[in-house]
Description:
Helix content: 25-40%
CATH architecture of the largest domain: 3-Layer(aba) Sandwich
Distance between the termini: 67 Å
Mean pLDDT: 89
Strand order of the largest sheet: 8-7-6-9-10-11
CATH topology of the largest domain: Rossmann fold
Low-confidence stretches: 280-284
Structural class: alpha/beta
Number of strands: 11
Radius of gyration: 24 Å
Amino acid sequence: xxxxxxxxxxxxxxxxxxxxxxxxxxxxxxxxxxxxxxxxxxxxxxxxxxxxxxxxxxxxxxxxxxxxxxxxxxxxxxxxxxxxxxxxxxxxxxxxxxxxxxxxxxxxxxxxxxxxxxxxxxxxxxxxxxxxxxxxxxxxxxxxxxxxxxxxxxxxxxxxxxxxxxxxxxxxxxxxxxxxxxxxxxxxxxxxxxxxxxxxxxxxxxxxxxxxxxxxxxxxxxxxxxxxxxxxxxxxxxxxxxxxxxxxxxxxxxxxxxxxxxxxxxxxxxxxxxxxxxxxxxxx
Length: 284
C-alpha cells in the first residue's frame, strides 16, 4: 500500500492524472481477502489489485470517466462484475478517487498586473508560473508566492513550459508584439483558457496580423480578449480579480459577463478569407 501511495505521488509530480480505487465494503464476499484492497490506475496501467480480476478490469475501464468528471464516486458490483441492485445480498463496494494535478496558472509577462494575479492564483489553489524575458522583472522578490519564475524569451514559452488541459494561460506582456508571438503558438493548445490583455483596438490589431499568418478564426474564438469579466476594473488589483474570476467561471462552467470579443468583426473575417488557401478544384 505504501508503494501505491508513492507511485501516486510520483504520478502527480509528473502532472499526470490517476485514480485510486479501494474496496470499502464487501458483503457476502471473502471480506478478509478483499476489504481494503487498492488499485492505482494511471495512463491505462494498473498497479495493485482489488483481489479479483473482474474488479480490476471494471476499475480500469471506469478510470477515464472518473478523471474527466474529477469527482469521487461509489459503485456496487455483483461477484460477476455486473452493477449490484439496491437490495443485493452479496456485493462489493468500490470507492473511486481521482488524483488530479493542481490546475496551473501560467502568467506570461511580469508587469504590474502579474503581481496581484499570481497572489490571487495561489490563494485559489493554482500552481503558478510567471514568465518574462527581463531579468529585473522575473525575480523571486517580485513573485514570492509563485511556484516557478522563469526568465526566458517569450517565443520559447510553449517549448519550455508544458501547456496541457489543466493550464490556464494569461498574456499580460508589455507589448502586443509579444502577445502575438506567444498567441500564434498556443492558439491551438489544449489549454482550457487563454486570456490576453489589451483594449479592443489592440486585440483586433493582434488578431488581424495572426489571421494574415494563418491562424484560424476558430482558434482565435477560444481566446478571451480583452481579458477578464466585465466589472469595469481599473487598478492592477481589480484587473487581476476580473481575470481570475473569469478563469473560475470558465473552469466551473459559469455564466459570467465576459469582456472578450466572442465574435470576430466582419473586417477580420474578410482577412481570414483572404489568407485561407484556395480550395482545390476537382474534375467533373
